TrEMBL record:
Record-linked SUPFAM superfamilies: Metallo-dependent phosphatases
Species: Catellatospora bangladeshensis
One Gene Ontology term of the molecular function aspect: acid phosphatase activity
Cleaved signal peptide residues: 1-31
Swiss-Prot/TrEMBL keywords: Signal
Domain Calcineurin-like phosphoesterase: 49-225
Name of this chain's protein: Calcineurin-like phosphoesterase domain-containing protein
Amino acid sequence: MLNRSPRLRRVLLTAASLGVLALLAPQPGAAAPVPRDEPATAPAVLVGAGDIGSCQSDGDEATAKLLDRIPGTVFTLGDNAYVAGTADQFQRCYEPYWGRHKDRTRPVIGNHDMRTDEGGPYYDYFGDSAGKKGKGWYSYELGGWQVVVLNSTCDLVDCEQDSEQAEWLRETLDASDAKCTVAMWHHPLFSSGWKHDADPRVKPFFEILYEHGVEVVLNGHNHNYERFAPQTPDGEFDRERGVRQFIVGTGGGGLNGFGKDVDPNSRARNADTFGVLKLTLYPDFYVWKFVGQPGSSFTDTGLTACH
């Protein structure tokens, strides 16, 4: 019999009562399916993806239809309107599909969004939901969780440890009394994708999050899905305090694959399915589920206790 802490036992009992018959990640192997029925008091839901609106692809139409069936707060993970984030591209390539969920969307800015006027059309399109114009970072609370959004286009904004953005991140986490936190930005620190390398410029973000015991990081940029085991900022597996990173660049703007060298802490990968990640947020743990486009067979589900 494993020696489990009282908190972990409570999470397992809660999960069992919900029908989630899974071992807590990050134990090896895929976790069991998430239940279809919601409990009487429904938890908060975050659902979304990155790399979305392309007039050259119908993937965003497919993923928008998934959002139609999933309630909750929609997140984007950057590169919302290809190829240059112009006002016209937001109207023609994003608005017809994901735009119908605009009223419940909290976006992330990506490098393609910043190609025009350093993101001017992005801020104009999303308005107050995107935070202060010209910054790209903001936070909000959802179901008792702290949600932190950052700007990782580090060739146009400062991402160093002593930057305005990093100082804001520290202050926001220091002031938060939330037990669980999820952070999101566009460029991943860890990635097995072939098209875009891992971006070490965002390591200061990851270091601050790790120091504050944050649970989850969501990224896009590589047009695929990849889930990692909880890690330190140096890429070492850390079951107790590590931050779990997801890449969800599957919003519709094309797909690309993985290189020969797979990250040692990569636990799930797919490069041929458009889809969205659904995070169900409970007070002490979270459940994840990748929801693929109709006809796809790939999924990835599991749950993890908060630190």
